[in-house]
Amino acid sequence: MIEVARIAALMKAHHLNTSELAEIVRLSPSKISKVLSGDQKFTSDAVGILIKELGIHPNWLFGYEGKPESVMYLNDLVQRSEVEKLEAKIRELKDELGEVYKQLAEERRVK
To answer: Nearest-CA neighbor of 50 among 14, 24, 12, 17?
Structure first.
């Protein structure tokens, strides 16, 4: 279920009133009012439109990530493949650093 606070936050972030949001998600303004009051839920089509048209991150929209008042967009997130590349580079650098420390320790023992 999508929290009303998240809908309100995305409306604020995009400077949308009830009628404008209704037009975007192809619902009536009265349906949007009922969603905002918590009496009804968005249709799955409306949720899909929010994600696609406004670029809203689905994990944020459904409350799995982020604060309700801070809208998260798909473009804000680093791609998983990029994260994996960076993590691999960090592991590689840690291994190299470990080898340098071993060499330094060996050199000190020899002296």
So the answer is: 24
Q: Is pTM beyond 0.70 here? A: no
Distance CA 50, CA 61 (A): 9
Query: How far is it, in rounded angstroms, from Cα 48 to Cα 24?
Result: 11
pLDDT tens sequence across 61-87: 999 988 999 898 888 766 667 778 888
pLDDT in tens, 20-72: 999 999 999 999 999 999 999 999 999 999 999 999 999 999 999 889 998 98
Number of domains in the chain: 2
DSSP characters over 10-78? HHHHTT--HHHHHHHHT--HHHHHHHHTTSS---HHHHHHHHHHH-B-HHHHTTSSS-TTS--BGGGSP
Q: Which amino acid would we find at residue 28?
A: S
Which amino acid is it at 85? K
End-to-end Cα distance, the chain:
68
Residue 89: domain span: 78-111
